[in-house]
Amino acid sequence: MRTVVTGVAGFLGSHVAEALLARGHTVLGVDRRSPDLDETAARNLAGALERPGFRLVVADLNHTPLEPLLDEAVTVYHLAAVPGVRASWGPRFGAYVASNVLATRRVVAACARVRTPRLVFASSSSVYGTTTGLPSREDDPTLPASPYGMTKLAAERLCLAHAREADARTSVVALRYFTLYGPRQRPDMMISRVLRAALTGEPVRVYGDGTQRRDFTYVGDAVAATLAAGAVAARAEAVNVGGGAGVSLRELLDLAAEVTGRPVPVIDDVPQRGDVAVTCADLAKARDLLGHVPATGLAEGLARQWEHLTAAVTG
Ligand code: NAD
Ligand code: UGA
Questions:
Q1: Helix H or strand E segment including 313
Q2: What is the pLDDT of residues 176-213, one digit of tens each?
Q3: Which atom of ligand 2 is nearest to the CA of 212?
Q4: Residue closest by Cα to atom 27 of ligand 1
C-alpha cells in the first residue's frame, strides 16, 4: 500500500517510515531537509534510503505542488513541523506558523482534493497547556501555554474541521504525542542533552527546580500507535499517545546516571516560558481505539537511546 510521510527526515518521521517499509508498504517521504546537505537528515534517513520501497522528495510543503505527491496514497502521515516549545517565543515564530499551520492547511486541502482516505496528523500534548485536571483526557479544555502549542492546536483543529464536513472524503486521526524520546531524538530535547552530558561531562542545564514532570514516551511505542492510527475506523478523532509513567526531571537525572553508569553533571538555570509543570496522558481512548499500551519503560528506553548515542560516537 502506498503511504506518504511528511517530515520524514526528522526524528519521528524517519522511525515511522522505517516501520511502514518493514511492513511492506511503499513510502513516499517528503522533507525540506536534504540528506545531501544536512547531517541530521542523512543520519535519520540512512535506514529508509537503503530500502527499495522508499522514495524521498526534498521539498517545502508550503511551496511544492502537493497533489502529485499525495495522489493514490492510502494514508498520509503528516508529521512535518517546526517543533520545540521554548524557541517558539522567539523570532522564529513566523516559521512555526508557516510550517505548522499554513503547510498543514495545504496538506489537508490537497488530501481532500485527491480523496486520500486517511490523514494522520502529529499533534502534541502541548495543546493541553495549563488546563486543569490530570491525567489529560482528549475532551478536556485546551489552553496552550506556548506559541508552539497554539500552532499545533490550530493545525489539529483545522484537520478535524475538514474531516467533519458533511462531504469529507478524508478521515483524520490527530495524535497528541507526549514528549517522545529514543534513538535519534532531537538534540534540543532534555533526554538527548542528559545523555550527552553523561557522555561528555559537559553539564546539562536544568530549567527551574527540576520538579517538572513529563509523560516521556518511547518512540517505538509512538510509532506503533501511529501505524495503528492509519488503519482504524474513525472519522475525526484526537487521541493521546503517552508513555504511561511520568517522572520528574530530578528522577530522570538519577535514572540516567544509573543506566549510563556515569555522573550527569547539571547546572541550574532559570525556568523557561511556556514550560508546563506536568504532562500526563489519560490513555483509555488510545487503548480502545489504537490498542496503544506502552511497552517500553523509561529505564529500557533510556538504555536504548544511550546505546545508540555511544555507537554513533564510537563508530
Ligand atoms: P523533527 O524536527 O525531528 O522533524 C520534523 C521534520 O519536519 C524536519 O525534518 C523538518 O525539516 C520537516 N519540516 C518542517 N517544516 C517543513 C516544511 N515546511 N516542509 C517540509 N518539511 C518540513 O521533529 P520531531 O520531534 O520528529 O516531531 C515530529 C512531529 O511530531 C512534529 O509535528 C512535532 O510537532 C510532533 N511532536 C513531537 C513530539 C516530540 O516529543 N518529538 C511531541 C509531540 C508532538
Ligand atoms: C517536547 C517536544 O520538544 C515538543 O516538540 C512536543 O510537542 C512536546 O514535547 C509535547 O509533548 O507536546 P518538552 O516537553 O518541552 O517538549 O520536551 P523536552 O525538550 O524534552 O523538555 C522536557 C523538560 O525538560 C522540560 O520541562 C524542559 O524545560 C526541560 N529541559 C529541557 C531542561 O531542563 N533542560 C534542557 O536543556 C532541555
A1: helix 298-314
A2: 999 999 999 999 999 999 999 999 999 999 999 999 99
A3: 26
A4: 12
Please state, in angstroms and as integers, the Cα–Cα distance from residue 124 to each residue in 115, 150, 192, 304, 306, following that order.
25, 10, 19, 23, 25
Q: What is the pTM of this model?
A: 0.98
**125-159, pLDDT tens digit by residue?**
999 998 778 999 999 999 999 999 999 999 999 99
ipTM: 0.99
Determine contact, residues 264/204, Cβ cutoff 8 Å.
yes
Question: Is the separation of the CB atoms in 270 and 208 below 8 Å?
Answer: yes
Q: What is the pLDDT, as a whole number, of residue 245?
A: 86
Mutate to test the pocket of ligand 1, among 79, 102, 119, 221 (most ligand atoms within 8 A of CB): 79
**Which of 237, 252, 251, 255 has its CA nearest to residue 292?**
237
Pocket, ligand 1, Cβ cutoff 6 A:
7, 9-13, 31-33, 60-62, 79-83, 99, 103, 122, 124, 152, 177, 179-180, 186
Report the C-alpha gap between 82 and 52 in whole angstroms: 29
CB of 125 sitting under 6 A from ligand 2: yes
